[in-house]
Amino acid sequence: MKLEINTAGESHGKGITAFIEGFPSGVELDKDLIDRELRRRQGGFGRGGRMEIEQDRAEVLSGFYQGKSTGTPIVLWIANEDWENWKEAISPEEETEERRSVTLPRPGHADLAGSLKHGYEDFRPVLERTSARETAGRVAAGGLSRTLLREFGIRIVSRVTRIGSAVDSTEKDKVPLENWNELADDSPVRATAGNAEEEMMAEIENAKEEGDSLGGIFEVVALGVPPGIGSYSSAEGKLDSKIAGGFMSIPAIKSVEIGLGKEAGSKPGSGVHDEIFHDEGRGFRRSTNNAGGIEGGVSNGEPLRVRATMKPIPTLARPLHSVDLISGEEGKAAKERSDVCAVPPASIVGEAELANLVAGAFLDKFGGDTLNEVRESFENHRARIQNWFEEV
Ligand code: EPS
Prior knowledge:
Blueprint: E1 4-9, E2 15-21, H1 31-42, H2 50-53, E3 58-62, E4 64-65, E5 68-69, E6 74-79, H3 83-86, H4 111-118, H5 124-130, H6 135-150, E7 155-163, E8 166-167, H7 180-184, H8 194-209, E9 216-223, H9 239-248, E10 253-258, E11 276-279, E12 283-286, E13 294-295, E14 298-299, E15 304-310, E16 321-323, E17 330-332, H10 343-366, H11 371-386, H12 388-391
Antiparallel strand pairs: 1-2, 2-6, 3-6, 4-5, 7-8, 7-9, 9-15, 10-15, 11-12, 13-14, 16-17
The protein binds ligand EPS.
């Protein structure tokens, strides 16, 4: 069965649900890991007041028995503390006087396009679902995916390399991938180089004073991914196509690159393609990783490297021009409490997304009903690859 992950819930509703199908049985529940991921997502310099209200924790509603997954649908629930302040305003069950309508769509948000799609004059339902609050559900599911992946030595890390015009200019790969999270988790902007951190924070402070918002770039890497997951023959099964789609589905992501990414278009083939070597007992390896661990839609055993660009948040304290959906009058776009910059938490969401995508592709290749079946299939594959020349 395919691994499928979906979420439901509104930003100020009762909570966020993650619904996971196709997860094998026999995986031990690690609630601490899931909650740690949720906490990591809540951090980051540039967040607004909401994160002082929330303390995200996942509750397991189904799909586990006595601390182990059962292979049945899993439901994770993250309560919204802020619901207490909103339950009348956005009651899902009845019309209320406290309704907090919003009618001046924000440029860059789904407010207008979503209203045109559904015929809403009050775009509150669009705003509520398109809020980045939804990503708490993906991160909770990502925690589950991580518990599966770590059984096979796969780990996901990330860092922020740009916020506005502040760039981490450290030489490429100076900071070993293995150390990214150790450094980034200690930085308020998830930078791995000290010089970048201060500049990034100054940019955010500045944008806040100006009533503006900022985007940036983050990188996510999956370490220990075995060769052979993905597909070179089906468009849908290609690992890079899954990654592009998955990352573009994270709110505000405007570009996704794998490995060298767009730089690959400006270099000759000899400067792009990663030469092949073979070490006895270890298997094939490359001296460079410009492909970002994927060739022809299939993982090649090198780290999977993804880079994503996030646009600035569309809710501005100094709002842009808009038109009221009911009166047709010109005005300034709606403004609600919001973050100034969400690139640091987005990199944690990127980690979860990559964990979910890799777990899905991993189970497509090695899947079985139970963790032991998955392990057996994985071990056979690994043995064959490590001893390639002895076997053939
Ligand atoms: C968001 C606006 C802010 C953010 C929110 C995303 O929330 P609020 O409108 O309640 O101040 O804090 O992000 C989260 C709640 C979260 O958990 O990441 C938006 O409009 O997208």
